[in-house]
Amino acid sequence: MTGQEVIIIVATGVAAAALTFISVKLLDHLRRRDAESEAGQIVKRAEQDVESRRREAELEIKETIIQQKAEGEKELRRIRKELHERERLLDKRQDTLEQQAEQLLKQEKIVENTQRKLTERIQDTNRRKDELSKLLDLQRQTLHELSGLNRAEATKRLLEILDTQLQQETGSVILKHERQIAETCDEKAREMLLTSLQRYAAPHTAETTTSTVDIPNDEMKGRIIGREGRNIRAFEKATGVDVIIDDTPGVVIVSAFDMIRREVARLALNKLIADGRIHPSRIEEIVAATQEEMERHVEKAGRQAQQEVDISGLHERIIHLLGRLHFRSSYSQNVLRHSIEVAFVAGMLAEEIGLDGRLGRRCGLLHDIGKAADHEAEGGHPKIGADLLKRYGEPPEVINAAAHHHDDMRVENPYTVVVATADACSASRPGARRETLERYVKRMTELETMASSFAGVNQAFAIQAGRELRVIVNAKETTDETAAKVCHDIAKAFEERLTYPGEIKVTVLRETRHVEMAR
Length: 519
Known about the structure:
The protein has 519 residues and is mainly alpha-helical. The chain has helices spanning 3-146, 151-199, 219-225, 230-239, 259-275, 280-309, 316-325, 335-352, 357-365, 381-391, 396-403, 414-428, 437-452, 480-497; strands at residues 210-214, 242-244, 251-255, 329-330, 333-334, 457-463, 468-473, 505-509.
């Protein structure tokens, strides 16, 4: 090997080593640049993730704030509603206190008049006594002078004359007192009724014959109907109601005159919709369980009514029938609430006339018990109720009140009259029984038309279901004095031409506006 070849080999090795070194450095630089690039991407992704989380946190905070604001507004509406309800109750109590104060004033005036009349009668009696003594002395002297009769004969003749005069005066006094007693009895009866009705003020709600059940979507209607209608037929057969499914979105209607069946059907249908398994066997199972729950609810309603009226010793069957009255209506008036009201009014009336208030409440609570079983026996509810009460050992006063509290009343004890009176008051209380829309509109129109017919009246508005009338008069055609006269004339016209329960408040408004421009 020549020296030149060695040099070439050495040079080649050196070049290879240099090339290898350069390659290693280049690869190391490339790896470092890739690592830096990847680190930058990781940092960038981390920043993006942080930004995304920050935005999500801001959205959550905004949603929380909106939710808290909605809850605060809802709580504020609830508080406002409670305050409004309390204000309404306070106004109602204030009206009741004012009415009671008026009644006390009337009674004080009656006592004063009675005392004055009694004083006048005593004075008149004393005067007549003096006149009679003088007349007797004069007649005695005249008889002795003219007839020459002895004392015994004169006394006998004088007594005959006095007897005739006293019989005539006694008859006139009796007639006078009979008239006064009749007037006093009528007045006392009105006062007792007013006092009893004012002491017990009960709200009334109208009952309907249908119930609505909300469904999540229209697909549920098809599941309720079932294949070829087998589900709806099974449901109607098990509950005894009619299920109405029409084009109304999100609603199924349950119809029945028996309110217990309708309530059972409504509850059972809600359970089936929530459960989702709707088929004939499941329907029968749910309906049976709901009927058991309803029986317990009926029992609870009966016991609550007994406790509310504060009577005891009722048979279990009577309590159950009372609970059934909660699901019975008469002229859209709930029969159980009507019975409770009659019980309180009858108890108060009984106490007013010196009878047993507890027995009066018992008679009033059970007077319509026959309506809970009138579909199980023949005859009207008074006869059915009397038979039931007799069977379960109620007192004769309670049985007689249930049997004769309507037009065929036979007065065998005073509690029957008390219950009949309380029953009539409860049924005729304004709002207790539903009136037709036509009659309501006719009464409102009649009030407004009659008020508008007076001179100077621009507009008239009937409010508060016809118990108040707002009248706006023309300020140019009337004065304050003539506006007061218009108000009086309108109220007088209502009293003379219309028939209405309670009172109608007439308010006349007269307003004068003056406008000037400052330039």
